[in-house]
Amino acid sequence: MSEKYKNKTLSEIVKIEQTKNLLRNNRREYNRGFLDYRDIEIETGSIEKAFGSATVKLGDTVVVAGVNFEIGTPFPDSPDKAILLVEGEILPTASFEAEAGPPDENEIEISRVVDRGLRESGMIDFERYVIISGESVLKIFVDFNIINDDGNIIDAANLAAVSALATAEVPSIKYLKENLEEVNNINIKEVPREKFVIKEIPIATTIGIFDNKIFVDPTASEEEVSDTLITFTHLSTGEICSIQLLKGGLTFDEVFKTLEIAYDKSMEIRDLLKNYGISI
Amino acid sequence: MAKEEFIRVDGRRPDQLRKYRIRAGVLKNADGSAEIRLGKNWIVVGVYGPKEHFPKFEALQDRALLFCRYHMAPYSTTERKSPKPSRREIELSKVIRSALEQAVILDRFPEMSIDVYIEVLQAEGSTRVASITAASVALAEAGIPMRDMVVGCSAGKVNGKIVLDVGEEEDKHGEADLPIAIMPNLKKVVLLQMDGKLTHEEFKEAFETALKGAMELYEEQKRALKELIEKMREFEGDEK
């Protein structure tokens, strides 16, 4: 009994037991339905110094994402493609358990899941942001930070990254091509900017299972008690572009059941993004 | 009209695994070990434990800790890989551990730890699922109680066609990759990842394709363990 609660505060223990009781009785905190997301708030351009940024609130989970551009050398096996680097960190402000320091396996996993969504979706036109083939291309940095962690940080981070990219302004490639001799010592911040082009919007939806009950958008305490957590990332076409089983296991039936739920939810979130002017 | 034949880069049929071979008990010093060869993949797994966990404050009073390291040798890939763990290796170590944790009965060994070391000596695509398949055999050889074996296999989409057991070339140029691992008797999925693009119908087809491949490899896991037991019997016979 004691072991389950190692390194937990008293209030966290109470919360975990409450969460289990609620789910067992087919209920969730604040009478939220099993297939309801918490309120989502998006603010774009929240960091003026970045080329693109967004703050996303998903219930009490808060994520800030920033987009930056630099000029770099392409990878030898893809001379005609821009470079995308996605990195995320859970800040020590995020929760009692969060620690400062180099990213741990969870932070690496989250970053890589968000990365795969952005990369595999075809959202970014990698060929467009090449200055000289094989020599210089744009390096696209997407950095996100979890400021407060109340669960489901993958969905929130994905939304923040997508919103920041969709509203980002990129240094004009035309200008850079016209000023080739200066490319190496140009100040990227002073280059005239244009709208960053996106071709797709990947939407991540995370689903939890506890006591054979399936629910979306788990809070931190729901994640803690979940037997299973799985994230699907969908495209506007209904195709899947990324899956990650984060925790536990599921039956073959549950794989397809959660996949359908994830798709329906991704369409709802896609509509919500339209209200913020984020669409393709 | 005859059905159109679809031949893959390495001449395989869409639903064909590469040549495979699992051997159990390949390391003298480990408590349990196994190696798998799947195409050009060559992966060795050593299991140490259950043993007392140090430092003590990290040990759990109600179960054992499972530690898992997936590591690629610097010479395992076409371009040399730095020996220090990459972000990819850290992620894979985590998902492999999470998959094995579903099968290993950890609460039999409170205060202890079990270490699973996966060394990829040569990589040719689908290494994470081949690693799990070998790790499960190594755990069984170590005599660690398990609810079921864990067996992994991948499927993918290459040139618009769903194929089994994605190789390195196919992964590079293919449209999607779906590695899965299952517990074959409990019928549970314990590792599921995907990247690329698949419609729901294609996903279903790929998932079922990977399941079939996993069931074939499950037979090979059992064969490898039986082979080892027979060898041990012969050895005991010699001594008498």
Write the layout of secondary structure elements.
The complex is a heterodimer of chains A (280) and B (240).
Chain A: H1 10-24, E1 40-44, E2 52-58, E3 61-72, E4 83-90, H2 105-120, E5 130-132, E6 136-148, H3 153-166, E7 169-171, H4 173-178, E8 193-195, E9 203-210, E10 213-216, H5 220-225, E11 228-234, E12 240-247, E13 250-251, H6 252-275
Parallel strand pairs in A: 4-6
Antiparallel strand pairs in A: 1-2, 2-3, 3-6, 5-6, 7-8, 9-10, 9-11, 11-12
Helix pairs in contact in A: 2-3
Chain B: E1 20-24, E2 32-38, E3 41-52, E4 65-72, H1 87-103, E5 112-122, H2 127-141, E6 151-158, E7 161-164, H3 168-173, E8 176-183, E9 188-198, H4 200-239
Parallel strand pairs in B: 4-5
Antiparallel strand pairs in B: 1-2, 2-3, 3-5, 6-7, 6-8, 8-9
Helix pairs in contact in B: 1-2, 2-4
How would you characterize the overall build of this protein?
The complex is a heterodimer of chains A (280) and B (240). With 280 residues, chain A is of the alpha+beta class. Chain A has a single domain (34-275), classed as Ribosomal Protein S5, domain 2 (2-Layer Sandwich). Chain A is 29% helix and 30% strand. Chain A has 6 helices and 13 strands. Chain A has helices at 10-24, 105-120, 153-166, 173-178, 220-225, 252-275, and strands spanning 40-44, 52-58, 61-72, 83-90, 130-132, 136-148, 169-171, 193-195, 203-210, 213-216, 228-234, 240-247, 250-251. In chain A, the strands form 3 sheets. In chain A, strands 1, 2, 3, 4, 5 and 6 form a 6-stranded mixed sheet that branches. A 4-stranded antiparallel sheet of chain A has the order 10-9-11-12. Chain A is elongated, with a radius of gyration of 20 Å. The mean pLDDT of chain A is 94. With 240 residues, chain B is α+β, with helices and mostly antiparallel strands. Chain B has one domain: GHMP Kinase, N-terminal domain (Ribosomal Protein S5, domain 2). In chain B, strands 1-2-3-5-4 form a 5-stranded mixed sheet. In chain B, strands 7-6-8-9 form a 4-stranded antiparallel sheet. In chain B, a hairpin with a 2-residue loop joins strand 6 and strand 7. In chain B, helix 1 (87-103) packs across helix 2 and helix 2 (127-141) packs parallel to helix 4. Chain B is globular, with a radius of gyration of 19 Å. The termini of chain B are far apart. The A-B interface holds A 2-4, 6, 105-106, 108-109, 111-112, 116, 119-120, 122, 230, 235, 237-252, 255-256, 259-260, 263 and B 60-63, 87-88, 90-91, 93-95, 98-99, 102, 178, 183, 187-200, 203-204, 207, 211. Strand 12 of chain A pairs antiparallel with strand 9 of chain B, so a sheet runs across the interface.
